[in-house]
Amino acid sequence: MGRSFRPGVGMNAGSNSKNQYFAGCLLVILQSVVYGFGDPISKMAYETVPVFSLLTARYLIAFLFLCLLCRGSLVSNLKETDARIWMLPSLCIAGCYIAGNIALKYSAATSVAFLRSLSTLMTPVLLFVLYGKRIRRNQVIILAIVIGGMYLLCGHGGLSGFGIGEIWSLTAALFMAGSLIFGQRAMEKMDAMTLTAVQAGVSTLAACLCALFFDHGIRLSAAGSTVWLIILYLAVACTAAGYLLQNLSLRYISPKAVALLQCACPVLTAVFSFILLHEKLTVAGFLGAGIILLGIMAEILQGEKESTGDKR
């Protein structure tokens, strides 16, 4: 079973806390690299296979893979954990990535990445509404800098209008904020692998129901070898590893920090979209990428100074 873990509590403070903080940051950056490549190749696959059919296959493969990895402990851990603990983060993360992938069907990958990353704004707002957690002034400044950079990168650099794709992107951002907040609390009661497997299972069920309702069944007959390779990458790297990296990071850093560091994803999405989809990046876009990276570095350095004690 997982245990309550708070940086700087019950351990030697100082270097250990800083190392743990940097470890959490690294986990989020790795997740952003994985998703940065996953967004444009997902858009490529959706030209052949319906969104929900692809998502059903992706999440099912991920769930089965995770069950193999933790087959000895999954059932026993779930029996010992109140379903309410894992249900909220599981529903939120399923909603986030289903909404985000629907958005990719209707909007440019860079635009989706920009709007989805507004979870960095929604997370502290939800923390305040739900738990009365106030955001410090220096974090507000960093947040404003990063959002400005994201607008230059993906908004001014590629967001040409506001339609159904943008609505789904904002929905994904809201669900992401919920998955971070509720996910950290779940990590105090259960281990990361079990939570990740449950999240993949809930995502599978949600995608399958959507496929039956919107796609009139699971239709994968048009998927060739390239599409199946994309699905395999999305299942193992983006879902199994991506969910796990996020859950592990929440043991070391706050949901607000995770949300802000995930803003590296639009930068990487823009790079991979330029290479794979030939989506153009303007001078303003390059400037925005630089501003985002500076904001992320500022958050990392600020977090290092505050890495002792509870940052939630």
Secondary structure elements and their pairing?
Layout: H1 15-45, H2 51-69, H3 74-79, H4 83-106, H5 109-116, H6 119-131, H7 137-155, H8 164-187, H9 192-214, H10 225-249, H11 255-261, H12 264-276, H13 283-305
Please, could you describe this protein's structure?
- There is one protein chain.
- The chain has one domain (28-305).
- The chain is 75% helix and 0% strand.
- The protein has 13 helices and no strands.
- Helix 2 crosses helix 10, helix 4 (83-106) packs across helix 9 (192-214) and helix 5 (109-116) runs antiparallel to helix 7 (137-155).
- The protein is globular and about 50 Å long.
Strand fraction: under 5%
Q: Report the end-to-end length measured between terminal Cα atoms.
A: 22 Å
Q: Runs with pLDDT <50, length 5+?
A: 1-13, 156-160
What's the average pLDDT? 81
Count of extended strands: 0
What would you report as the Rg, rounded to the nearest angstrom? 19 Å
Counting structural domains, the number is: 1
**How would the global form be characterised?**
globular
The biggest sheet amounts to: none
Count of runs of 4 or more consecutive helical residues? 13
> What is the helical fraction, as a range of percent?
over 70%
Order of helices and strands: HHHHHHHHHHHHH
Category by helix and strand content: mainly alpha
